[in-house]
Design goal:
Layout: E1 2-6, E2 14-18, E3 28-38, H1 40-47, E4 60-67, E5 80-84, E6 92-96, E7 100-103, H2 109-113, H3 115-128, E8 136-139, H4 145-156, E9 160-164, H5 171-177, E10 181-183, E11 193-198, H6 202-210, E12 212-220, E13 246-249, H7 261-272, E14 280-285, H8 289-297, E15 304-308
Parallel strand pairs: 8-9, 8-11, 9-10, 11-12, 12-13, 14-15
Antiparallel strand pairs: 1-2, 3-4, 3-6, 3-15, 4-5, 5-7
The structure holds NADP nicotinamide-adenine-dinucleotide phosphate.
Length: 310
Amino acid sequence: MRALVVDHTSPGHLSLTDVPDPQPAAHEALVRVEAISLNSGEVSRATDPATPNGARLGWDAAGVVVRAAADGSGPAEGDRVVTLGETGWAELRAVPATLLGTAPRDADPGALSTIPVAGLSALHVLRRTGQLLGRRVMVTGASGGVGRYAVQLAARAGAHVVAISRDPDRAGELRALGASEVRPEPAAVTEPVAAVLDNVGGPHLVAAFAALSAGGTLVSVGRSAGADAVLTPDALLGDAGRHDRSIRTFFLFGDPATDFAADLTWLAAEVTAGRLDPGISWRGPWTRHPEAVEALLTHRLHGKAVLVLD
Ligand SMILES: NC(=O)c1ccc[n+]([C@@H]2O[C@H](COP(=O)([O-])OP(=O)(O)OC[C@H]3O[C@@H](n4cnc5c(N)ncnc54)[C@H](OP(=O)(O)O)[C@@H]3O)[C@@H](O)[C@H]2O)c1
């Protein structure tokens, strides 16, 4: 089969190469991949000189089961599925049932492929922030893959969503997704928030932490800014209604035993029904991967890049 593998001599640091077909274990289904989506974390790894040529990456994919798991777990042959993996930018992928969601037959594979990392991260982080109904919730990096899902899910959970985007042109889109306020940076938010989903880190994290009300939680998801977050001694004071604030870390793959199947299936149904916007801002054949990588690395995407397999 063909796969996109790390190749630092090629544009976008990836090349389409022949590799051996996967050999599924008894608990794994074999999936023929129809579409993949790129995430900033894995693209950063692909372009990092420390990642060796030939390395296989790729978390997000959607496709069709061509051979069900031998142990009877998971979806049946012919089912359309959305999958989370680790080495999956390839025509075939072997996946355990815990990393497979079943999608409606008429689902758009491109839209499904945006779900695993971005959709699951947004959903699992918002669960960590506690009850959202009637509360102010800030999402930084709101125009990105995780951010767009987070804005929509927090709004659906009844939150007053404060979306942060540096780009004024994104305000209309973010309001259409459910944001009640759109601000250029956390420091521009004047009313306290009960929770923060921070995709950006650096000074954004520091200012967002300062905006938390007593008892509030900031979940640090990403560090798109690539900058240090410097908290002065005063920033950590718990006086004047600022007590009991916390910063939590998050890693989607933190617990290898997590069963993502039900959440992937639910997100796939919501996206297919049009109740969640997958936020695709670039779509093309996987032979055009260098363009997608370039758009992601230069922060011109403001959404998900989807590569469609031929
Ligand atoms: N911990 C985990 O398990 C986990 C899971 C998923 C993602 N992540 C991480 O979370 C972050 C977001 O992921 P993503 O896929 O949503 O990325 P993305 O699609 O690239 O979006 C990031 C957003 O952050 C904003 N941004 C970028 N550079 C910035 C800067 N220098 N200062 C301020 N804002 C900036 C941009 O929005 P504007 O230009 O509109 O401001 C951009 O749309 C990444 O760092 C990713 O690696 C971590």
